[in-house]
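Notes from hallway chat w/ T.B., transcribed later so I don't forget. T.B. wanted the structure written out for a chain they're using in a teaching module, and asked if we could keep both sequence and structure tokens in one place. Agreed to drop them here.
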Amino acid sequence: MAKKSIIARDLKRQKMINKYKAKRAELKAIGDFEGLARLPLNSSPTRLTTRCIETGRSRGYMRRFGLSRIAFREEASKGNIPGVNKSSW
């Protein structure tokens, strides 16, 4: 599991992105790049990291399910993900 401080930092970034979304779009439409540069760095959507809902892991993230590959495999084996079957051959 990822450190709680890293998960909290990511949540803080998400809040900041939502807060400055309208202002950022307005400045982009005008073409005011100096104004964009004055906004906080964490208000940029590219700073956000996709993380697993369960574990907070950032690597091996499956966007469709919102889980890392490890958490996905565990949940699929338990049968908690609808439409996903365990494959065997």
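Follow-up for T.B.: Helices lie at 4-30, 33-38, 69-78. Might be a good example for the class.
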